[in-house]
Amino acid sequence: MNILILGGGGREHALAWAVMQNPKCDKLIVAPGNAGIAQIAECARLDIEDGGTVVEFAGENAIDLVIIGPEAPLAAGVGDALRDAGFPVFGPSKEAARLEASKAFTKEICDAAQAPTAGYGHFTDAASAKAHVAAQGAPIVVKADGLAAGKGVIIAETVAEAEEAIDDMFGGAFGGAGAEVVIEEFMTGEEASFFLLVDGEDVLPIGTAQDHKRVGEGDTGPNTGGMGAYSPAPVLSDEIAQKALDEIIRPTMSEMVKRGTPYSGVLYAGLMIENGQPRLVEYNVRFGDPECQVLMMRLGAQALDLIHACAEGRLAEAQVTWADDHAMTVVIAAKGYPGAYEKGTVIGGLEGLPEDSFHQMFHAGTAQADGKVVASGGRVLNATARGATLAEAAERAYALVDGVDWPEGFCRRDIGWRAL
Ligand code: AMP
Ligand code: GLY
């Protein structure tokens, strides 16, 4: 099988690694890829948000399966363009990708499906949004409706903070994403992520994870894209996962089918769990980054079979072979991240690291320059490991971290602290 993966972060390196473990993969191309991906697959430069360009490239390279990593090409309809041209695609249609691209849309689907989620209001002007906040009080959550690179959510501790966020959003702080605003009840509890493959009506759970969004140890400081993750998520017990499936995932996926926009691809459900009851925080229409890294580490080669079955609508006959194992990934970021950071600094020590089914140093933001690996982003490396226990996975992941010689980088030393 010839496979094309779109994207170039740690998520896509992990996907590429898992795909390459499977003998069914004859050729793998990743666009744009990164320095780590280039060591295991061919990397290509193309505009991955332009459907026509991707279709042409897939045709020229006799591609049998396209795996779309990030949300932007999905929201731009690249999946539709490929499907229309007859390519099997892993990733939802533009219409179904609204489950991530529009928070108001997701709330409406939850309402129709009677799925437990935070109470909310949806507003197109600041005055009515503020009136809602005045009536509800704080804490309260203010969200830009559209895609805002993970930055469009403000947890307001006071009414004044909420009003300021409303003014910012309608004032254009998040561009078009903030032209509509969703205001939600603040939920308490513990958060976890549930990953499922979906092809219309069929749903297959493929794992759970928890991540650390704050930059600082003890979960302090500004929000990031994620500083580390581990799988499984202890808070998502079998019983709670089943409840989430029955009360949230299946009813909302049925609602998508009913509306003529069936969902296909990986569904990433962010859940808030309190007193044994899961509620939906949000849907994403792609793998989490870095959650994908721990899921791929645990699934290994079978990930390709599952993804392929999902893309071809054969999930009903697919099965996951579970191992009783744990995985952890530690993000190594450039000093300064999530604020300003330096690019182009040289990363040493990578050649000496162990690389097997228990240890993988996935690259997130790296490039090649003069034969050396250099940092090219904020989140740069993902030290990822698997073990019989989470403690063992953590020990291995931090051993990988300690093998890297990169003075301009940093990581959190406490990934998984809640579970450990
Ligand atoms: P989102 O982009 O919707 O996932 O929001 C980002 C983060 O904000 C989530 O991972 C939660 O930690 C938090 N969050 C979002 N909505 C709520 C809510 N209604 N109540 C409490 N926390 C929330
Ligand atoms: N790690 C969070 C995300 O991918 O959205």
From TrEMBL:
<dbReference type="Pfam" id="PF02843">
    <property type="entry name" value="GARS_C"/>
</dbReference>
<dbReference type="GO" id="GO:0046872">
    <property type="term" value="F:metal ion binding"/>
</dbReference>
<dbReference type="GO" id="GO:0005524">
    <property type="term" value="F:ATP binding"/>
</dbReference>
<dbReference type="InterPro" id="IPR037123">
    <property type="entry name" value="PRibGlycinamide_synth_C_sf"/>
</dbReference>
<feature type="domain" description="ATP-grasp">
    <location>
        <begin position="107"/>
        <end position="312"/>
    </location>
</feature>
<dbReference type="Pfam" id="PF02844">
    <property type="entry name" value="GARS_N"/>
</dbReference>
<dbReference type="InterPro" id="IPR000115">
    <property type="entry name" value="PRibGlycinamide_synth"/>
</dbReference>
<keyword id="KW-0658">Purine biosynthesis</keyword>
<dbReference type="GO" id="GO:0009113">
    <property type="term" value="P:purine nucleobase biosynthetic process"/>
</dbReference>
<keyword id="KW-0067">ATP-binding</keyword>
<dbReference type="InterPro" id="IPR013815">
    <property type="entry name" value="ATP_grasp_subdomain_1"/>
</dbReference>
<dbReference type="InterPro" id="IPR020559">
    <property type="entry name" value="PRibGlycinamide_synth_CS"/>
</dbReference>
<dbReference type="Pfam" id="PF01071">
    <property type="entry name" value="GARS_A"/>
</dbReference>
<comment type="similarity">
    <text>Belongs to the GARS family.</text>
</comment>
<dbReference type="InterPro" id="IPR020562">
    <property type="entry name" value="PRibGlycinamide_synth_N"/>
</dbReference>
<dbReference type="InterPro" id="IPR020560">
    <property type="entry name" value="PRibGlycinamide_synth_C-dom"/>
</dbReference>
<dbReference type="InterPro" id="IPR020561">
    <property type="entry name" value="PRibGlycinamid_synth_ATP-grasp"/>
</dbReference>
<dbReference type="GO" id="GO:0006189">
    <property type="term" value="P:'de novo' IMP biosynthetic process"/>
</dbReference>
<comment type="pathway">
    <text>Purine metabolism; IMP biosynthesis via de novo pathway; N(1)-(5-phospho-D-ribosyl)glycinamide from 5-phospho-alpha-D-ribose 1-diphosphate: step 2/2.</text>
</comment>
<keyword id="KW-0547">Nucleotide-binding</keyword>
<protein>
    <recommendedName>
        <fullName>Phosphoribosylamine--glycine ligase</fullName>
        <ecNumber>6.3.4.13</ecNumber>
    </recommendedName>
</protein>
<dbReference type="InterPro" id="IPR011054">
    <property type="entry name" value="Rudment_hybrid_motif"/>
</dbReference>
<dbReference type="InterPro" id="IPR011761">
    <property type="entry name" value="ATP-grasp"/>
</dbReference>
<keyword id="KW-0436">Ligase</keyword>
<dbReference type="GO" id="GO:0004637">
    <property type="term" value="F:phosphoribosylamine-glycine ligase activity"/>
</dbReference>
<dbReference type="InterPro" id="IPR016185">
    <property type="entry name" value="PreATP-grasp_dom_sf"/>
</dbReference>
